[in-house]
Design goal:
Blueprint lengths: L15 H28 L20 E5 L9 H11 L5 H17 L4 H15 L4 H16 L5 H12 L3 E9 H10 L4 E5 L1 E4 L2 E6 L7 H14 L7 E4 L5 H4 L4 E5 L3 H9 L3 E3 L14 H22 L1
Parallel strand pairs: 1-2, 1-6, 2-3, 6-7, 7-8
Antiparallel strand pairs: 4-5
Helix pairs in contact: 1-7, 1-8, 2-3, 2-5, 3-4, 3-11, 5-7
Amino acid sequence: MAALGWLTPRRRSATARSVLAGEAAAEAARKSSQTIEALQELEGAPAEGTGEPEFPVAGDERAAAFFDLDNTVMQGAAIFHFGRGLYKRQFFQRRELARFAWQQAWFRLAGVEDPEHMQDARDSALSIVKGHRVSELMSIGEEIYDEYMADRIWPGTRALAQAHLDAGQKVWLVTAAPVETATIIAGRLGLTGALGTVAESVGGVYTGKLVGEPLHGPAKAEAVRALAAAEGLDLSRCAAYSDSHNDIPMLSLVGHPYAINPDTKLRKHARERDWRLRDYRTGRKAAKVGIPAAAGVGALAGGTAAAVALHRRRR
């Protein structure tokens, strides 16, 4: 069973690197909101969502909302969809795509984040983008969103975010995905901005290194704390939304935590603390997220076959 150790997420407390990653994400998020505002002026106002939750309170300018991205706002993981788009553009070879396909299949079927799995995906992405210009990846990211992400947004979560916007509050994505990818998604959804993993760049070119560490777990909480201080927010009046128990540090910061499409550990934690729960998934039991082993093997095989078929078509 030791070989399956990577299946178990590890909880960590905040470290100096977490704080650095959080502060870098907060700084990048404030810049991302300016970018999004400029794009919205060019493209017009986003379409309004449907539905209205019982919260938030309209007119509370010291309140804001923080949304996890993967499996909370969007089905699957943004970094895997991004990798798929980069493969299509010949940024890497079939071997890396097969690994992306396996990781995406695991994430969708298990319904939980594994830190080592996500770390591996981010390391792969960093090596792939090293030497490329930030502006190039931003432009490609727009195309990838339209191709692979736009139809994977959960309508229910989108409506929750829109309710905060309609109440006059700022809404931020908080994700381990690259801040550039997160900023594109936030802009397309009409949100304020995004907190994401910051990749180091020099002269507008990626170095292949991170600033601090991936924005995951405790680092997310540090990013939210730093952004709240910079924006003058009262965290006790803010809301946070996530599907993963890894985000309990972030959810615990705010006065209004929500468990969205929660994994088993987060569902239990939320019920013990009387947090609000929302589950927008279909074809899955709300009380227990899981699938038969045979179905998991089949989905993995299908994902790998699709990767191979795509490669052959390209040849």
